[in-house]
Amino acid sequence: xxxxxxxxxxxxxxxxxxxxxxxxxxxxxxxxxxxxxxxxxxxxxxxxxxxxxxxxxxxxxxxxxxxxxxxxxxxxxxxxxxxxxxxxxxxxxxxxxxxxxxxxxxxxxxxxxxxxxxxxxxxxxxxxxxxxxxxxxxxxxxxxxxxxxxxxxxxxxxxxxxxxxxxxxxxxxxxxxxxxxxxxxxxxxxxxxxxxxxxxxxxxxxxx
Length: 208
Hints:
By secondary structure, this protein is of the alpha+beta class. It is built from six helices and eleven strands. The protein has a six-stranded mixed beta sheet with strand order 5-11-10-7-8-9.
């Protein structure tokens, strides 16, 4: 992770910034902003060094978004799309980025899985290495907005190599709704294969 220096600088205004997995994520009463790392199966999802940068937070890959400094509220209501960096991108290839929430409306009963938050195709490897996400947008970026009292949601970023000469698009039916998106069918239809890299962060409604 490449955000400790940034966190210390920003959160230091309110108190002390900390990094680790033992304390609660975001202790506002103590003036400490703690970024808790994911564990178990949630941690295993993160592979391939895909980096997702939000303002003030830095790379949020494989972490819980803390409540301190109104980070959960700001990521849901204020900040625009994150900067995506994949240092290992092949500059001669193109890529497909998919961002989904598999926990809609909640993780215990994800009847609207997958909720589509962002789909970009034709991303050049050179742009990915530089953190400049240029390409053709199939679905505009949708901020993470987990419903109140629905617990933590996973927001997953999956990066695929785009097959040459493959015309990728959403069907008219897919365009009518963001929820219950058959992501696996989309991946199979356009022969995307397995992600070359993936990461995720977890957050919940800012008032919970």
